[in-house]
UniProtKB/TrEMBL annotation:
<keyword id="KW-1134">Transmembrane beta strand</keyword>
<comment type="similarity">
    <text>Belongs to the outer membrane factor (OMF) (TC 1.B.17) family.</text>
</comment>
<protein>
    <submittedName>
        <fullName>Multidrug efflux system, outer membrane factor lipoprotein OprM</fullName>
    </submittedName>
</protein>
<keyword id="KW-0564">Palmitate</keyword>
<keyword id="KW-0449">Lipoprotein</keyword>
<dbReference type="GO" id="GO:0015562">
    <property type="term" value="F:efflux transmembrane transporter activity"/>
</dbReference>
<keyword id="KW-0998">Cell outer membrane</keyword>
<dbReference type="InterPro" id="IPR010131">
    <property type="entry name" value="MdtP/NodT-like"/>
</dbReference>
<keyword id="KW-0812">Transmembrane</keyword>
<dbReference type="Pfam" id="PF02321">
    <property type="entry name" value="OEP"/>
</dbReference>
<keyword id="KW-0175">Coiled coil</keyword>
<feature type="coiled-coil region">
    <location>
        <begin position="222"/>
        <end position="249"/>
    </location>
</feature>
<keyword id="KW-0472">Membrane</keyword>
<dbReference type="InterPro" id="IPR003423">
    <property type="entry name" value="OMP_efflux"/>
</dbReference>
<dbReference type="GO" id="GO:0009279">
    <property type="term" value="C:cell outer membrane"/>
</dbReference>
């Protein structure tokens, strides 16, 4: 019997190296080797450091924003769920990995039974006892064709994908907090601008009302001045509401209340962000966590094909135990009480109405789906970076033009006000100058916000936001979680 067990173990060890998982081939990136070029794009420049390796503390210069990001990384619930998902997939991998090893269990039992006299062969009541202690292996599958290892590899790649999903969640969180903060600051600046403009409109209305009382200004002039006041009040209510809603959105992202000790925010016109090197599209394949997660899902689907292929072949499972059996407790471990059993089982698929073939076809289709999803994630990343690069160049031009437009409107307003006060021009020209200046100032704040959010989104698109400091590496360990035997 020992020789049979030894030969079986050797055979299993030799065949255990067999795997039916197809060789993995990384799909070609379905994008160009360079980002788009043209009038909307700035010339490409070489970079000493990839954007993904630039820590968010170095990218965001505003101390208030840095504190908010740190708070969100500690308290945000979506990030917490993503971290717990990693632990959950690690546990699933442990469960699947454990099937590669035999499950050994020890069992002890005892029983006493009384047989009535009329049922006893001797005609007298009898009491029988039986005690046993066994150590055994139950239904251990010899992984001859790699089915269990394929399933284990599938679980491992899913675990790696969950790690990348957490990175993606953190990167998105950093960008979301930054955009929410910038929107909050922009709306506060718009609110302050509206308050100042309303005060100016109300003063103008008061002066026009006095002029109307003495017969200098007409009722039409007074009515036009009032429309400016009422329009500013509408804007005031809107921006008051938006500031409150911005605070609520930021609170949700933080996972807690906005800190009371937040440093004084810097104005939108300040140098809030660092310059970002775009690099090459090929870097996205190593930097974007959503692309890496899609590739791990593709590898998991590839491994499932190996498991589906192995299901066509025979499977062998072993059940064995050895121990001692005795009618009394005292003789349980004495000589001659030993017992053992060995029950190998082989399962050979013969007819299954095509279910195994359908399972293999399904696995191949799932792999094709994952290939398409992987390619789509690359194309999406390429499009997001290209949009960010186009926005960078055009927003610089747009902001400069808007600055010049505000300056021109300020000159127009000063001249119109002077000419109106001395009676050269009508009130209509002065009101038009007021409204034009207010609109231009609003547009300047809105354009600056759009420029900043586009830079934040470009930082996110390039995979930035994972590191806190630039000296760290944007790497995630690709090691399986340690196997826990007990």
């Amino acid at each position: 019997m020992s020789k049979s067990l030894l030969s079986l173990a050797i055979t299993a060890a030799v065949l255990s190296g067999c795997s039916l998982i197809p060789d993995y081939q990384q799909p070609q990136a379905p994008v160009a080797a360079q980002y788009p070029q043209g009038p909307a794009y700035s010339p490409a420049e070489a970079a000493n450091q990839a954007a993904a390796e630039q820590g968010w503390r170095q990218f965001f210069h505003d101390p208030a924003l840095q504190q908010l990001i740190q708070t969100a990384l500690v308290n945000n619930r979506d990030l917490r769920v993503a971290a717990l998902n990693i632990d959950a997939y690690a546990a699933q991998y442990q469960i699947q990995r454990a099937d590669l090893f035999p499950a050994v269990s020890a069992n002890g039992s005892g029983s006493r039974q009384r047989t009535p006299a009329r049922l006893s062969q001797t005609g007298e009541a009898a009491i029988s006892s039986q005690y046993s202690a066994t150590l055994g292996v139950s239904a251990y599958e010899l992984d001859l064709f790699g089915r269990v290892r394929s399933l284990s590899e599938q679980a491992l790649q899913t675990y790696f994908s969950s790690e990348e999903a957490r990175r993606s969640t953190q990167i998105s969180l950093v960008a979301s907090v930054a955009n929410a903060y910038l929107t909050w600051q922009a709306d506060k600046e718009l609110l302050k601008l509206t308050q100042d403009t309303l005060a100016a409109y109300e003063e103008s209305y008061r002066l026009t009302s006095r002029s109307n009382e003495v017969g200098v200004a007409s009722a039409l002039d007074l009515s036009q001045a009032r429309t400016s006041v009422e329009n500013a009040r509408v804007q005031l209510a809107r921006y008051t509401r938006q500031v409150a809603q911005d605070e609520n959105s930021l609170t949700l992202l933080l996972g807690t209340a906005i800190p009371a000790n937040l440093p004084s925010p810097q104005p939108l016109s300040a140098d809030l962000l660092s310059e970002l090197p775009a690099g090459l599209p090929s870097e996205l394949l190593q930097r974007r966590p959503d692309i890496l997660a899609a590739e791990h899902n593709l590898k998991a689907a590839n491994a499932s094909i190996g498991a589906a292929r192995a299901a066509f072949f025979p499977s062998i499972s072993l059940t064995a135990n050895a121990g001692t059996l005795s009618p009394d407790m005292g003789g349980l471990f004495k000589g001659g009480s030993g017992t053992w059993s060995f029950a190998p089982q082989i399962n050979i698929p013969i007819f299954n109405a095509g279910s195994l073939r359908a399972s293999l076809d399904y696995s191949k289709i799932q792999k094709d789906i994952n290939v398409a999803q992987y390619e789509k994630s690359i194309q999406t990343a390429f499009q997001e970076v290209s949009d960010g690069l186009a926005a960078r160049q055009t927003y610089n031009q747009q902001l400069q033009a808007q600055h010049d437009f505000v300056t021109a409107n300020q000159d127009y307003y000063r001249l119109a006000e002077r000419r109106y006060r001395i009676g050269v021009d009508s009130n209509l020209t002065f009101l038009d100058a007021q409204r034009s200046l207010f609109s231009a100032q609003q547009a300047l704040i809105t354009d600056r916000l759009a420029q900043l959010t586009s830079e934040v989104n470009l930082y996110k698109a390039l995979g930035g936001g994972w590191n806190e400091q630039s000296s760290q590496k944007a790497e995630v360990s690709k090691e399986a979680p340690p196997l826990k035997l007990f």
